[in-house]
Automatic annotation (TrEMBL):
Record keywords, A-Z: Coiled coil
Taxonomy of the source species: Bacteria, Bacillati, Actinomycetota, Actinomycetes, Micrococcales
Protein name: Uncharacterized protein
Organism annotation: Microbacterium album
Residue ranges that the Swiss-Prot or TrEMBL entry lists as coiled coil: 21-48
Length: 205
């Protein structure tokens, strides 16, 4: 009898230990799940795009505020804009983050972009759209600019705090007085995208 009693007690303690271990695992999983929900609640769109720039396996499709839709690979992310190489490889798209209406990404890339990553280029966090466009103006890069109303082509002459001056001319034509057919002053808030020749390279970030 003492032996049987001892076996029963050992089983009792083993069962109790298993039960406590299961409860601890359930509690730990719940805490981790809650911590993950809290972490995701603080994740911003820019951080997801940075992750896509550094690790996406497939191109994304960007739907923009003016109705433009482009399949491209995100190559750089500034403070409030991104650069993406279009699928044809010949053109580069510069997009203010506020102009992104929707981004289609492969499911695996979408999941990976939600994981924590370390910012690889802290300088890029401080390069605004205005600074990127000033780089294009300095280099006299020909551009096409999409707005909700129209597409304008030419060369950016100067960039202010919240607007730019555009000399209008035909795509591919140099910015010469004889080629310029007008000037426009555009609020940066009206710009949905800027398209340049990929050979011009990404603006300095």
């Amino acid at each position: 009898m003492p032996y049987a009693r001892r076996v029963r007690w050992e089983r009792f303690f083993e069962d109790l230990e298993d039960q406590l271990a299961a409860e601890w695992e359930a509690e730990r999983a719940a805490l981790e799940s809650e911590a993950e929900r809290l972490r995701l609640a603080r994740v911003e769109l820019r951080a997801r795009l940075v992750a896509l720039a550094h690790g996406a396996e497939a191109p994304v499709t960007l739907e923009l505020s003016d109705g433009e839709c482009a399949e491209a690979r995100v190559t750089a992310v500034g403070a409030d804009w991104l650069a993406a190489a279009e699928a044809d490889g010949r053109r580069l798209l510069i997009v203010p983050l506020r102009a992104i209406a929707c981004a289609h990404a492969a499911h695996g890339d979408l999941l990976r972009s939600a994981r924590p990553i370390e910012e690889r280029d802290r300088l890029a966090e401080r390069v605004t759209l205005a600074l990127a466009l000033r780089d294009l103006a300095r280099r006299r890069v020909g551009v096409a600019i999409g707005t909700d109303a129209r597409i304008l082509t030419g060369t950016i002459d100067r960039v202010g705090a919240d607007h730019l001056d555009l000399a209008l001319h035909e795509p591919g034509a140099p910015r010469r007085a004889a080629e310029v057919r007008g000037y426009r002053m555009l609020p940066l808030a009206a710009v949905a995208w800027v398209r340049i020749d990929a050979a011009a390279g990404v603006p300095a970030v």
